[in-house]
Write the structure tokens for this entry.
Amino acid sequence: MSESFQPALADYLRDESRRVGRADRIAFPRTETDVLAALAEARARKLPVTTQGARTGVTGGAVPEGGMILNLAHMDKILAAENGELRVQPGATLAAIRAAVPPGFYFAPDPTETSASIGGMISCNSSGALSFLHGPTRNHILGLRVALANGDVVDLRRGRDQTAGLRFQLGSVSGELPPLRRPAVKNAAGYFVDPDMDLVDLFVGAEGTLGVVTEATLRLLPAPGAVWGLMAFLPSTAAVVGFVDALRANQRSEVGGQSSEVGTPPTTNHQPSTAPRLAALEYFDSNCLVFLREHADELASKGISVPNLPDGSACVYAEWHAPDAAAAEAALMAAAERLPEFGADSDACILADNPHDLEKLKLFRHSAPEMVNSAIDERRKIHPGLVKLGTDMSVPDARLADVLAMYETDLAASGLERLIFGHIGANHLHVNILPRHPADYDAGRALYARWAAQVIAWGGSISAEHGIGKLKRDLFRQMAGDAALAQMRDLKKCFDPDNLLNPGTLL
Ligand SMILES: Cc1cc2nc3c(=O)[nH]c(=O)nc-3n(C[C@H](O)[C@H](O)[C@H](O)COP(=O)(O)OP(=O)(O)OC[C@H]3O[C@@H](n4cnc5c(N)ncnc54)[C@H](O)[C@@H]3O)c2cc1C
């Protein structure tokens, strides 16, 4: 049951978007039965319920707007590990899940924030560097238990529980899904609907608006024999795009097909690969490298070392998963040998060929979003209303050069302080604008709106991994259109006629 909200619990009013909400009550369930009791109370009192995982979300989805907070952080048990599957409660963190994975396996979804809960990752359909090869969280969810607003609990298994065409039956809720379209790019915006789809997928990426995930069964993959990473430094954006295109073309010709970012999730386990595969392709612009170098002392105090970064270059990080070290080395060397074609020095690369060095590079990469957030926190001491402006948009392959040119031209003309990093393999870059004062923030917002309109016109998505939450509803409306939004609202109404679950999020 819930308790009344006390000021000492103020932390629960915010997430990493730094938006602050309000609440009347809060519940910390430990079991599915506790979740059902809280939902029953919410129904009886007509209280809106905001579900929270670890509150690392950056779009305000977990920020309450009155009513009850349902915080699942105490539902964090690892329940079972067998047959290449892991059964967990929703509050289990990514770090805890990784620690529980049996030897010989790994869990592929890898948002850099490892304190995120699996319930939050499922609800946002999060992704990370390895999504280039393995797709987002959706592709790794085999089963879900979900508590619906009416008190039903549905137990869903991929491959078993599906829609008939678009018709579905879930507990006592039945209906027809709307024929929603989604862009053919990496996308985490809106409900996932396909004819004859797995019902699991309806709840992945639904941002907690259709039900509360109370348990998840995760698909584990066979661990690769060897993982090698390469940080390459390139002299210009054109060189970066050329190198990325070359690596992607090579992957397509050697492995066949493309990364699993787009499309319907697989129903079977991936077999261990017999060939090296490009698993991650990430980008850091020159501003980002300068910013991290400037914060090297602060990072060192957190145990994160900043590698030797050449001046004026942008960086591409590529990672290969291979059956053995010889195959990983061959793939990496073949990539490094192409660098001179793009004006880069193959001897100036940083190489990681063991778990220790890979972890060091990973910590370094994760420090980019973290340091941006702490820089903004410093500025908020002077201008309390300031927040970071961070984009999360993706475009089709053919638009990668165009989108980078658009960002750079506009940002150079604006004089705004900014840095760009992200998942370049999926044409998914985070532009981070660090406003120095409110006028910067307004100028940044105007640019963001212009870019979003262009990205939508190119067939891209305004959210590739963070979801819509409460901050991106206007952009989502532009992308989806009023008619599709009305269909989504009708779908939500089927499950939640009184709009109790996460009102104000997504829709
Ligand atoms: C420094 C930093 C780096 C990040 N890096 C990445 C990254 O690389 N990739 C990426 O995708 N994201 C990233 N994020 C964003 C964030 O970590 C992810 O969105 C994460 O999945 C959120 O998980 P959470 O448990 O914190 O969810 P919360 O923030 O608590 O909630 C997020 C949403 O999920 C809903 N929800 C949570 N649990 C449940 C549940 N059990 N049932 C139903 N709904 C639920 C909430 O209502 C809310 O709408 C980053 C964030 C930070 C601060």
Notes: Residues 475 and 481 are 10 Å apart (CA to CA). The longest strand covers residues 226-234. The chain is about 35% helix and 20% strand.
